[in-house]
Amino acid sequence: MNEFEKALRAVPARRYHHLHPFNRRMHDGLLSKEELRGWILNRFHYQRHIPIKDALILAKLEDPALRRIWIHRITDQDGSEPGEGGIERWLQLGEAAGIPRADLWSGAGVLPGVRLAVDGYVNLCRTGSPLECVASSLTELFAPDLMRTRIAAFEKHYPWIDPEGLHYFRARVGQGRRDSGEALALVLDWARTEADRTKAIKALEYKCEVLWTLLDAVDRAYT
Ligand SMILES: O=C(O)c1cc(C(=O)O)c2c(n1)C(=O)C(=O)c1cc(C(=O)O)[nH]c1-2
């Protein structure tokens, strides 16, 4: 592993949202039903914007080979048919936790701070270079481990959530590993100069801040 890859991996190691106090309480089984439902509802706002930011990234990629690598991220979330995909699985998670899907779709109850954080991520992907956009997705280097811990924590501490609702997290273990592997290969290939490498690191730091700020807002509102 070269120095640049080490520096990239060090960013989420320092500041990924698995370290956030709200997330720690989630994993320790300390969240009330209201807090956990608040997190699920607010995180849906992030989830539904993932394919939008990926469509913005796709539109910057001029090479068909690159678009072929990126395009599956949109169908992973949206599915190829109604009733499939990550967004649908998140709605099922909401239902398993007692939140009607209409409440998730309506967006009512999404906190201003969560909107701000998600807008920040979408805007980075609207205005950033392909290198910055792809680098910002590299928080997912840490996501598969987090998903495994989260599934175990939900099964152990929150039995009132139907385990059928946890498919979103199960699917993300493999998807996150594949996505982060693809994104890392692109970033290592594209960042040829010191200035490029600095921009990639800054974009990843910004993304960590997006996820951290989202949890700050949920923590403040519900705890
Ligand atoms: O639940 C999580 O902790 C978590 C984190 C992240 C992430 O690191 O941004 C993503 C997801 N989930 C996720 O489900 C997902 O689809 C996703 C896409 C991306 C991205 O930046 O392209 N991150 C994430």
From TrEMBL:
Reaction catalysed by this enzyme: 6-(2-amino-2-carboxyethyl)-7,8-dioxo-1,2,3,4,7,8-hexahydroquinoline-2,4-dicarboxylate + 3 O2 = pyrroloquinoline quinone + 2 H2O2 + 2 H2O + H(+)
Domain Thiaminase-2/PQQC: 14-216
Signal peptide from the UniProt entry: none
The EC number(s) this enzyme carries: 1.3.3.11
Pathway: Cofactor biosynthesis; pyrroloquinoline quinone biosynthesis; Cofactor biosynthesis; thiamine diphosphate biosynthesis
Domain of life, per lineage: Bacteria
NCBIfam families: PQQ_syn_pqqC (TIGR02111)
Listed PANTHER family: 4-AMINOBENZOATE SYNTHASE, PQQC-LIKE PROTEIN
Similarity-based family: Belongs to the PqqC family.
Its biological purpose: Ring cyclization and eight-electron oxidation of 3a-(2-amino-2-carboxyethyl)-4,5-dioxo-4,5,6,7,8,9-hexahydroquinoline-7,9-dicarboxylic-acid to PQQ.
Protein name: Pyrroloquinoline-quinone synthase
Species, as recorded: Nonomuraea mangrovi
